[in-house]
Structure formats: C-alpha cells, structure tokens
Specification:
Layout: H1 14-20, H2 27-49, H3 68-90, H4 92-102, H5 106-128, E1 147-149, E2 160-161, E3 164-166, H6 182-218, H7 220-235, H8 238-249, H9 253-262, H10 266-279, H11 283-290, H12 295-331, H13 342-348, H14 358-385, H15 387-393
Antiparallel strand pairs: 1-3, 2-3
Helix pairs in contact: 2-3, 3-6, 4-14, 5-6, 5-14, 6-7, 6-9, 6-10, 6-12, 7-10, 8-9, 10-12, 12-13, 12-14, 13-14, 14-15
Length: about 400
Amino acid sequence: MATEGSERFDQVDWSDISRSGRFDLSINSIGMLLTTLPVALLAVYDWQFTGRRTATFEFIGLDRTLETVDFFFIFTLLLAFWYLVLPLYQHPRMTRYYWKEFKRNRPAVVSMIWLGIVFVGGIVGPLVMSAPQQELLIAYQPPVFTSVVESTPATCVGDVMNGRCYGTWQHPLGTTNAGKDVLTMIVYGMTISMQIAFITTTIVATIGITFGTLSAYSGGWVDEIMMRFVDIILSFPTFLMFLLILYIYGGGLGMFIVVFSLFAWGGTARYVRSKSLSISEEEFIKASRISGASTYQVIRGHVVPNVASSIITQLTLLIPGFLLFEAQLAFLGVGDSSVPSWGQLISAGRSDLSYAPWIVLAPGIVLFLTILAFNFLGDALLDALNPEAEAETE
C-alpha cells in the first residue's frame, strides 16, 4: 500500500492492492452488511412463513404488515446512510465546504427543510397514525377555519351555525367523499413519494453508472453496441409497456417503480459515459495507469468518485419526473387505487371540485411544493458539488 504520508501516484503499490483483494471491506461496507442481514432475514420470514393476511410483526404483538416495496425502501435507506450520510460525517472538512456553498442558495435551504419534513413524515407518520379508514357518515368535512353547507346523510363533526358545517381540528384538512381524513392520506402519501424517490434513484444509479462506465472503457464495437441499446431504451414507449404489464399482472406501486426505473437509466448511462471519457484524459488517470492500476481500479478509485457529484445532481432532478408521472397515472385511474398516494387523493376529489375543493388542493399543493423543492435542491447541489459545470454554462 501507499505510505500514509503520501498520496503520489508514483508511490502507490498497485500490485500490493491487487494482492490484498478487490473486495476489501471498509467500515461502511461492514456496517451495510450487518444492518442489511436482519432486514433480509425478516423478508425471508415474511415471504415464507407469514400468510398474506397475517401482519409481519404479529409475533411481537404489532399489527404492521411490510410489503416487498417496504423491504426495498429499507434497503435503500441503509444504502443512503452508509454511503452518503456517514461519509459526510467522516469527512467534516469536506462537508463544511459543501454546506457553505450550498447555503448560499436560500430557496434550496428552504427546499431541504421541506423535503426533510416530507421524509420524516413519510417514515414516522405511518408508525404513529392509523391508516385512513372509510367513514361515510363524516364525508366532506371542511378544513379548519372554513365551512360548507351542512349536508345529509353526512354528520358534521364541527360546529353547525346558520346551516353551515365548520371545520374542526379533529380533521384539520377536512375529509374526502369517503370520509377519509385528508391529512392522514397526505402523510401516507409522503411514504409513497419517498419510496418512489429512493428506490428509483437506486435502480437508475446502479444500472446507469455500471453501463456508462463499461461502455466508456470498453471502446470499439462494444461501446457502439451498448450506446445503440441505450438509444433503444430512451426511445422505448414506457407508458405502453406499463399498460401492457398492468393488463397482464395488475397494477401496484412496485410494478410502477420497476418498469419506469428500468427504462429511465438511459440518460444517466449516456451522461456517465461522456463524463468518464472526459475524465479518462486527465493527467491523474494517465498517472495511475502508468503506475500499474488496472481498469477496474481506475474506474472504482477515480472515475466513479469524480463523476459522483454530477450523478447526484442529475438523479435529484430526475425524481420530480417520477413523482409527477405517478400522480398523472393515478389521476387517469391507471394503477392501484389502494395505494394512498397524492395522485390517488387528487383523483378522488376531481369530481367534487365545486363542493369540496380541499380534497384536490391540499395534496396538489404538497405535490407542487415537493417537486419544486427537488428542482431547487438539484440546482443548488450542482453549484455546490460541481462548480465547474456552472462555469461552463455561463
């Protein structure tokens, strides 16, 4: 290995690195393995020994069921912690520099706070709030500080004055035409949005980075074939494929995530390839090759870390598209109506706009703010992590 006091390429013993093994485990990887193992065992237990109508945690007295999407969501959260959050803690100087650059963008700071609220609400909310239940007798309850004409057979939960039903803090954002609490559905929708964001990002990043780097460093006819395949992926009618799979296997959040992720990595792969080709001409890459580093070591140790900042910003800007597309499909009635997403809530209130506009407005505003926050966050991350890209655009 290289001496502790030097980072010069000509002093790196690449043969020693090769002998030590390509898969040396860091503390991050060890922590990832140790935390993933219980989740994997729980998933096997749930799939093999628990019936569909039996709660996952019934053996400890909790009435809580985890679906396949939930297990993948937990896995992506662990990935984000061990390979994103913990490295920031391990490198405080770098973190302080990035934060100094990031906080110059005030809208991005506000956006990060909002996304933090959505993230915490999506994680903690379902644990402390019961799932939204249908109660027809309390349908069309207005939000607090508003009122509607009292209707029958629905019962007004709040005060009734001059024939009008006033909102109550029992249902601060009102209820739907089925009597479901709008606030509860929005909180559960936060979980759906975070699942879409984390899982799709993981799938797109994994496939895109792998495909892009392999294409760049394979070269020749291999690179040509791989890029033509990317062209096919980018031009493929994903919506029609989703409708076909929906017709054959039925809808569901997991199906939406898998289908659209598998057809959304093309842009990331092309971007990673172009960045890899440009970085391959840098002097430190040539120095590492002269020092004896293999292609694998160059890609893992230099190429991927140097394109990571650009990839992070691109993926951050890709998430709003997934959220908006899910909302559009739900509004059109395509997909699983049992999934409590913001799009499903908007769809449920579209026929009651004239009488109960809050059913559409509340989730619509939350969805708008979340998409806007991701866009602001992506722009700020681009400026903080990759200032050269900002200089190129000016």
